[in-house]
Batch of 2 targets.
Target 1
Amino acid sequence: MPTIRDVAKLAGVAPITVSRVINDSSYVKLDTRERVEAAIEELGYVPNMLGQSLRFKQTMTLAVIITDITNPFWTTVTRGVEDVAQEHGYLTILCNTDESENKQEQYLQMLLRRRIDGILLVSASNDAKPVELVKKQKIPLVLMDRNVENVDVDIVRSDTEEGAYKLTNHLLSLGHRKITMLAGPRDIFTSVDRTKGFCRAFEEVGIEISNEQIIWGEFTKEAGYLMAQQALQNDILPTALFAANNFVAVGALQALQEKDIRVPEQIAIVAVDDIPPAYTINPFLTVAKQPAREMGKQAAQLLLNRVEGTMDAPCQEIVLPVQMIIRASGGEKVLS
Amino acid sequence: MPTIRDVAKLAGVAPITVSRVINDSSYVKLDTRERVEAAIEELGYVPNMLGQSLRFKQTMTLAVIITDITNPFWTTVTRGVEDVAQEHGYLTILCNTDESENKQEQYLQMLLRRRIDGILLVSASNDAKPVELVKKQKIPLVLMDRNVENVDVDIVRSDTEEGAYKLTNHLLSLGHRKITMLAGPRDIFTSVDRTKGFCRAFEEVGIEISNEQIIWGEFTKEAGYLMAQQALQNDILPTALFAANNFVAVGALQALQEKDIRVPEQIAIVAVDDIPPAYTINPFLTVAKQPAREMGKQAAQLLLNRVEGTMDAPCQEIVLPVQMIIRASGGEKVLS
DNA sequence: GCATATCATGATACGCGTACCATAAATGTG
DNA sequence: CACATTTATGGTACGCGTATCATGATATGC
């Protein structure tokens, strides 16, 4: 592979002159520039960013770490990041942790070694260790979606507490009282947050929530299936289910279908996160939709501010509004 | 950020000794190693791969270029790549082109500059230019899924021609004769390939295919919706539809639902590619499923063989079998 | 006890591109 | 025409980690 020196020799100039042509910095006579460009063309020279990065002390690369790459919600967030990153000339590296703290740790190491300019993290872990690892190296980091405990750090997330509150309120206003929450993992910020919104709505109307009403699980279809089955075994049959995310909703719907329980006639269901339209023949779930792409954009913007600007500015928490989409699955007004 | 020299100074050794500790190469006395490790710990030293890559002439990084990051098929392929890459200590960079040749070209440039060790490409373009650009730089490249014209290059793809053939055969054996193919783009390899399989099945039973029977479009839900509408306007109403992929199928199903046409009673439908189970309450599409993860694994393996081995070995074409999954959407036997 | 093999460490140079300083030619100014 | 300014180009060193060669310290063999 040719180097800048090969080009220089062929063009009969010094390497630094080739560098000036590449970066369009400083003065180069038109005649010289053309000779250099011809040499670059002839040799098929591609500048080696390793050398550049070493000097410039920047790699023009950002990393996005997400927990599930097959989930379109996260890939849509990533698209938002890309939009902004590309605009600023940055390459985005996407890493997938599968919710494994171990894999996350491995990726962080790999990224730090590569002197990535900044990291966008959807943390697989609820504790501060990974964040502190990065902060210690003075690499800018912005959290997305999920907060972690006891750290001062930038974060962009959406207001799913409010979303959960509104969804629950919607069900309450339709007359539902026996609503079971099919929650996510107990130790993930967003999961707890959604449960809080659920509880807040009940508190406001002065109804006590029983223990049975909240079932903790995971953000997967399988968990949704199991949680729904459990909900249907409770002494008091619920008239509505609240799914902590779209996958949970799909699992729950499957469980209901297997028992020939009609939605929304016999049981209503609502969820946080929409199902991507590309997979739905007939969208009917009432959902609180998070602005995925916007989340990615804002997070990337915030990160780039840090990367290109100051690390000293105080940390920000940007909370984006969720969008209520009322469809059929919540059902009509019921009398309890 | 501390460098290897800072560590060396603190440990009272030469930089090269620190290097030896990091890479566990050559001899280092236990006592010295411990002193160095303590210094690394104290300073929070993270080796700078830019320097290493410059010397080693390798970045331990692979890139995957896909055309749609929000499509779980591609992200599953990527997961397969990751599995293998991580096993071998490589980081994977994921790039998303949105089917834009322009974006693809940009990404290739960015990757070449970063001296990526190898590239896995799902080409947004049907011509050989991007492949030749990479080959010229002697960077190993393996195509996935889609072939391109007139280049000798490694490729791993699945046998969707055979899949399409089998699906069509399935419909034919159930008695369908008026089958309309909702095809993908005219200039994408896999799209043409599937259409060929469709035609082959008809040829084998000696039935001529009319022009109306193949509608070209795109691999999207929207296109599927429009193509299905068009199919229903034809003089001879089809008794079955063949969707070129899962998104097309969903769009077609929506069009059918809007016209109150029941599937499979009134019209049967089959598709290449399954709908990810996480989104389906009730899987009922008869499909030919591609081994996405396996495709990624094999492609990554082939690429790594090139990266770590020889570039001289002749190019390979690995064709993976597709899996027929017969469900309800193909319907029962009909008499025409 | 001396030659040889092994262990342990370091000095120097290099991979690639560029910052910094130096030099020289071209141009402008009075 | 003398001097200042702008334009144009190059030499050297550096960013960080390591290959190569060299050197010295131990250990092994006979």
Target 2
Amino acid sequence: MCGRTSCHLPRDVLTRACAYHDRQGRRRLPEWRDPDKYCPSYNKSPQSSSPVLLSRLHFEKGADSSEQIIIPMRWGLVPSWFKENDPSKLQFNTTNCRSDTILEKQSFKVPLGKGRRCVVLADGFYEWQRCQGTNQRQPYFIYFPQIKTEKSPTRMPAILDGEEAVSKWLDFGEVTTQEALKLIHPIDNITFHPVSLVVNNSRNNTPECLAPADLVTKKEPKTSGSSQRMMQWLATKSPKKEAPGSPKKDESGIPQWSSQFLQKSPLPAKRGATRSLLDRWLKQEKEEEPMAKRSHS
DNA sequence: CCAGACGTTGTT
DNA sequence: GTCTGG
DNA sequence: CCAGACGTTGTT
DNA sequence: GTCTGG
């Protein structure tokens, strides 16, 4: 899935890219909170803060839920019951959420049911492809081509394509969870290219991170005489290691993506998964009302 | 009922 | 192998 | 996501 | 806080 993004635009440019239309159809720019925490980078990793869009109603009682706020936030979900001050003390991973279990996993379904939706802004994201026969992993940059509307903010494996989808996703006051989930579907107007291994280290923050690059050259580890003897010794002594050069099981030649999203892509499997996801939601809550109309007993 | 987890990746 | 830090 | 640490006592 | 497992 997604563990690295680029979000490098200057703040004013990013803000304009997030222009949207409110309930009255007026064109607006999202209002910033904590603008100084915005830290543009070509190489954003979990624990860093990324700009996030969310409904104003999350901040002000009685606010227009179609109005949007933009705030730098730490990557990863912190459960509401987590009392430590330091979110890095959370003892399990919440940097990703599987779309096929989001309605089962308590850490995600509870906040989802409360309308806690947001949109993480990014130029695109990185994925590492493991190739057979090497330990190296080939990074790729994946993004919307810069042709259409300039604004195409994304949430990672769940990508919202276009302003309207973003607005509906955020407007938890009017748009129910079930309607919101329908906005997430595989997108096809997306593209990618291989990038340099420079992106591997999250300290590297340069345009080279997302620049097109040649595929990683599979260099045979030039083994010195001594290391060859060492390898032989390991091969005979260690039951865990396989003899170097022994035939590998998987000769399919099919590239294995780390991402479920890219692996299964926009075809039947994913469609089916999405449908059963929605079906399950519909079963457990028949006539979901939008948040704005729910009674607060 | 209480205790304890609450999550993802990938690989075997 | 697994966790933390970036 | 990947890279890099993973530990303690005591002294400078 | 809420769910699962015992």
